[in-house]
Amino acid sequence: MNNKFREQFPILQNNIDGKPLVYLDNAATTQKPGKVIEAMNHFYCQDNANIHRGIYKLSERATLAYERVRGIVAAFIGAKSVNEIVFVRGATEAINLVASTYGEKNFKIGDEIIISTMEHHSNIVPWQLIAEKTGAKLRVINIHENGELDFEHYKGLINGRTKIIALTHASNAIGTINPIKKIIAIAHANNIPVLIDGAQAAAHMPVDVRDLDCDFYVFSAHKMYGPTGVGVLYGKEQLLDTLPPYQGGGDMIRKVTFAKTEFAGLPQKFEAGTPNIAGVIGLGATIDFMNAVGMKFIAEHEVELLEYANSVLERIDGLRIIGQSPKKLGIISFILDRAHPHDIATILDGDGIAVRGGHHCAMPLMDFYGVPATTRVSFGLYNTKEEIDVLVTALEKVRKIFER
User: For domain 36-292, which CATH number applies: 3.60.15.10, 3.40.640.10, 3.40.190.10, 3.40.30.10?
Assistant: First the structure.
């Protein structure tokens, strides 16, 4: 399995039940390069202290390391200022933060929130919760059978009651890449802000928030070769400045009395309590790693894998790929005659192959296609065509088992 990056990921040297690990569940979480693990280990061994508060050297070093990453993230996504970068637990918390703060401030009975059929539950449920609290309601953009967004339906949904549009940059279940720049241009022509869920996109393609002109952009470190439990909310500074705090606690205040609290400025206003300092440092190491590899290279490598996988999987009798948009990430969801995705995933695991079988936190999308679940394979920087060949051989075995 010739790939010069594989040796940088310690877990990929492991065997599963005596078989080489073939990890194809990157849309759920990615594996971590040694440099990321080492950066977090260095922090705990050399610099561990709380940030922003201590005046001793360990705290100063921890604070500098933590805030350095804010600059790294801002540069990585093209943000105008470090004040636009808020560290959170992940894309899920970032969406909840915006839904709660922006929604409570701006939504009222009869207002509308536009999402799409292909959204992850994390970009559905928070909007449902705030809609129930405020009397707003969801409007859902249709998709075509091939997985593309119905652009004409999107334009038709916009009206004077639309208060925000929240869409995925790329579907975690079927890989569709949405025309985000066009979507945002139409929204802004109607003075409507847009939140983009970039949990899948950030690891697999270059992202420039100023070029997109999105108002909010969210992503998680663990889907981009970084640690779990840390993510990013990008928000335009003038918008974030108008929003109330999401949580109260230490480090998000300027002054506290029993009569009144004055809150800190951006971005500390949204970072209550002790954050995942080691995770943020790990995120910085992750972005350094990805920049060294090159986002263009990563995108091209995964497109090559996607094209190869499509060509070989389509030869398997009874296998049907779900969602074949012309613009896709390296994600393939499929169904196989007479075989439930959970059974497929279990059998493949016996050959050391990790895939995801289920609804992929996208039940409305599964309903659209009339299936309870799919088997999903999703590629990363370290995957190879040889691994796809191993997958195909194992799927042929699965097919024969269920033909009996």
Answer: 3.40.640.10
